[in-house]
Amino acid sequence: MDEEEIDKAVMAYLRKKGFKEAERVLQEEQNRVSSVGSRSDPEIAKQILTFAESGDGPLRYHEGYSKLRTWSYSSLDLYKDELLRVLYPVFIHCFMDLVAKGYVQEARRFFNCFRDDHEMMHKRDLQKFEGILTPSHLEEMEFACALRQSKVNIKLCQYSYELLLQYLQKTQSLTMLGIINEHINFKVSPGHPSSISDDADAVSLIGSSQDIAKQVNQKEVHWGLLEDSIEERFEKHGGLLSDSEKVDGENKEADGEDKKRPVEGNKQGASAKKMKKDKVVGAVGKNVRSETTTVSVAPRVKPELKLPVMPPDEEQSILEDLRNRVQISSLALPSVSFYTFINTHNGLNCSAVSHDGALVAGGFSDSSLKVWDMSKIGQQAGSINTQGENEPSLNGHVLGSDERKQPYTLFQGHAGPVYAASFSPRGDYILSSSSDATIRLWSNKLNANLVCYKGHNYPVWDVQFSPVGHYFASSSHDRTARIWSMDRIQPLRIMAGHLSDVDCVQWHPNCNYIATGSSDKTVRLWDVHSGECVRIFIGHRSMVLSLAMSPDGRYMASGDEDGSIMMWDLSTGRCITPLVGHTSCVWSLAFSCEGTLLASGSADCTVKLWDVTASTKISKTEESRSGSGSRLRSLKTLPTKSTPVYNLRFSRRNLLFATGALSKGV
Amino acid sequence: MSIVPKESIEVIAQSIGINNLSSDAALALAPDVEYRVREIMQEAIKCMRHSKRTTLTTDDVDSALSLRNVEPIYGFASGDPLRFKRAVGRKDLFYIDDKEVDLKDVIEAPLPKAPLDTAVVVHWLAIEGVQPAIPENVAMEAIVAPAENKRLEHRKEDALPVDIKLPVKHVLSRELQLYFDKITELTTNRSDSVLFKEALSSLATDSGLHPLVPYFSYFIAEEVTRNLNDLSLLVALMRVVQSLLRNPHIHIEPYLHQLMPSIITCLVAKRLGHRLADDHWELRDFSATLVASICRRFGHVYHNLQTRVTKTLLNAFLDPTKAMTQHYGAIQGLSALGANVVRLLILPNLEPYLKLLEPEMLLEKQKNEVKRNEAWRVYGALMCAAGNCVYERLKMLPGLLSRPNRQIWRANSGLDLTISNKRKPSNSDLLGHQPPLKKLATAAPAAVSIPTKKDISAAVQAGGAATISGQLPSRREWPTGGDGSRALTVAWKEEVDAGDLLCSLFELFGEGILSFIQPPELSLFL
């Protein structure tokens, strides 16, 4: 190896890299040493030469990556999956390196050349990256920054890892080696390679949050139900009540409340506060009485919030409902009452149904909120509430009977499209959130706006009353979720942490937690009291649009834009089972009151019913496997007549209410 | 590199008055423009999702712009998504059809109807997991059997317990019972009322009627056998059948065996109605079209359906002991089944049959006015069938007209020319509203049925006139040259020359047959 040559190469390299100082020093050094006979290690010299030869050009990335790609694809089948997993981060970082160095044109060519490989798994990300054209965009985009700053964890088995290292060393592809060293954190595990399906991490690439997620998910979550809830009391002595003994029941209720008072006084320092009942809780009357069910084994937890008082008459009606609850399961499917909005002219953004189905609210893009009282419009709807829920003769023909000009109550006040509406548990208040960044509270009795809650800075995508009322949660484009109480115009808690819009929010049945789904493809669980994030659920491939909590508080379902639904175990933070079946956005999810069924409503104009017990039972008995091998069964698909399903809700008697806007174009 | 070309930037710059934008600046701006557009689209998609839509609208883009504190773009009518049209001759160029509107027209135009206000309607999507068959729900594609199969497969698949509901008694809901009573009452008593028309359209469109089909088919079969002399009732019943057949939500196949005898009865019964004045011909024509439509629709499922029907009809047609009315029905039924059937079954028998028919039509041989009239009807039907058949043939092989026949035509040309001149106007009356080519394309039955009726009556009138004047078109000797009859007997063969066929038919029917041939084709012969 010629000494001169090496020196030249080193100089050229330094010059290219812009290390002027080093170049100068080296030159001096050279001049000084030139007389002295020098030694050179041929290995090092070779290394140096290759550095210089390959240059810094963009071609290096292209070639390096394409070689790595061909190699991965031609590797052994057994290890291929794992090796292919490495490709995506390398691809993204190559691209970002190219952009950062200003080779925009080359970057674009590189991107287009290889994007097809990743289209299936990371379509959304690619769409984002496609727009990056200058280094400044790179800095501007948070997603890219997060990726640049953090390392991606990739699980490999021992052998795949060695294969990869061997390849990188043998081919001298230093660029690739550099990228892999810089951005990928290998977790080498002994044993057999894992398949892609049971590694949720492989699916999404969210930079730093992955470590945090691991950390966060260590925290303890008390997923149980509230102690001393109405269901519990109902189970204790409700079984003895028959409808003829209502008076008796009332007395016992009163007893129950008396006992409760001192207990709660101790706990909360709020002496005379009675605890309010959790309506969404999933105790099944008859079922519970006879056998152990999911609900009865659920642990009881103390409320961390001061809960509002429930008036006795309200309690009575809930007990009445519980007594009359239809028991549904995979063998006894629920009845579905469908509320179709007609003539919406594409303006309906959201809808909500009160717990008894008597009130239906629609939020429109013309800033209005309209509330229909179904019991007034036709006798049909009224009889749904008052008598049995399974009268097949109650087919709706509602419009005819009404003589009034406006069959609904119009609530005006927002200054932008209304994106969400939520009835209070008793149905006397409605909350609506709008693109004007406000949330408004309306009274159904007064037909008037009571409060306007300002706090968010950007459109409020979702708002949800807590299961006990009084408190509510909202989520917004400003990437926060907030907890409010009806009597304060400032939020009580602000939950920040999502990397993108918070699209939906849902309360845990025990009111101590809220779950939020976001455009960053994660679902988070937050402690309401402390405002901390206690769980991060990673696994969705597109924005999360809907959430539902099982009535026993143990499971959560989330639906995304692609139509997949995931069931999560709150305590472990793992996905139990993905539910595939919908072909378009899942707008709404709802658990039945016993938690045996999950209903999902989608933009593909169907309501699907899923069997939850099948999966949860397995995961209970085989806890160690944490639900692997268990899957939810799709029980039934109920197609609607070109009506995308916007909202679903189970009544306390287990009647399923669904809403949607008839759209001729679909 | 950027998908926004530099030229676009320059054009935009010029449009806002910057004429000297350097190309470097444009080049630098292009990628940024692309990035911003993508950013806006990303936000717009979010807005779309939160409006629970799957189509992006201009409103979403406006919301996205306002999210970014950018002035929205004005001037789009909100509501429906934009409809892009493809520019003519370009594959990748689309535009919005945005016509210029004269303000004056807009002002002077009457106020448009106010859009209907939003309303909420309730229906049962499912009752205990089963979707009721009501108009609000999607029509069930497969009513029973396939669902059952799927269930079983599903069960094998994952061996999880699946409830199988035991067969339950067929219970009709009260609404359906009322509906059934109402319809049957209308059919039997008030079939001429407007309400009956409504009922028919309801039968043809309602999606929830499937449970009633067995009852209807039983009702129809019963009523037909009991009331053969009540013509109006029979007509009403056949119209009910037609409506049921039309209803896309009903699977009528399993009940065809019950319905077919009734329809065939209405086609070939010896006596329909009790008065002479009753126009049972029309009922027969109508039944014929029904039979034909059933054969067309279910022929592929029951492949012996059409053969059985044609057999029945052919028996009626060829049995000389049967009444003329029955013959008429059989001929109409066969001809409704299409030109091929006519060619196959009627034409070969045409000549012997006409020999039988001739004495019935002649004043001197058949003294009974009614019977003679019937015979003329049959004659008309035969002529129609043969004529339509030969016309179909001609359409198929317009170029294969054989030359030699022309000479035969020439021989009669003097007479023929005058006749054809007379006939031509009526031709254009019947067919003129449809250009010949179009007629080719339209479904044969529709095209055939229209001229059929008119032509029959025309033929009857002509025949009547002829008898009075004692001058039959069929006066020339029946046993014409062996040439013509040979053509008829081999008519079922594909390769038979249409010209030969026409020629022999002309010999049998006289110039009446010419009315079935289009003037341009006719001129070929003349």
UniProtKB/TrEMBL annotation, chain A:
GO terms for molecular function: RNA polymerase II general transcription initiation factor activity. InterPro entries: LisH, TFIID_NTD2, TFIID_NTD2_sf, WD40/YVTN_repeat-like_dom_sf, WD40_PAC1, WD40_repeat_CS, WD40_repeat_dom_sf, WD40_rpt. It comes from Spirodela intermedia. WD repeats lie at residues 411-443, 453-494, 495-536, 537-578, 579-620. Residues 238-264 have a biased composition (Basic and acidic residues). One of its GO terms (cellular component) is transcription factor TFIID complex. One of its GO terms (biological process) is transcription initiation at RNA polymerase II promoter. Residues 57-184 form the TFIID subunit TAF5 NTD2 domain. Keywords: Nucleus, Repeat, Transcription, Transcription regulation, WD repeat. It is found in: Nucleus. Belongs to the WD repeat TAF5 family. PROSITE patterns: LISH, WD_REPEATS_1, WD_REPEATS_2, WD_REPEATS_REGION. Its main location: nucleus. This is Transcription initiation factor TFIID subunit 5. Residues 238-277 are annotated as: Disordered.
Automatic annotation (TrEMBL), chain B:
One of its GO terms (cellular component) is transcription factor TFIID complex. CDD domains: HFD_TAF6, TAF6C. Keywords: Activator, Nucleus, Transcription, Transcription regulation. One of its GO terms (molecular function) is RNA polymerase II general transcription initiation factor activity. InterPro entries: ARM-type_fold, Histone-fold, TAF6, TAF6_C, TAF6_C_sf, TAF_TATA-bd_Histone-like_dom. It comes from the Eukaryota. SMART domains: TAF. Residues 2-68 form the TATA box binding protein associated factor (TAF) histone-like fold domain. The keyword Transcription regulation applies. Its main location: nucleus. One of its GO terms (biological process) is RNA polymerase II preinitiation complex assembly. This is TATA box binding protein associated factor (TAF) histone-like fold domain-containing protein. It is found in: Nucleus. Belongs to the TAF6 family.
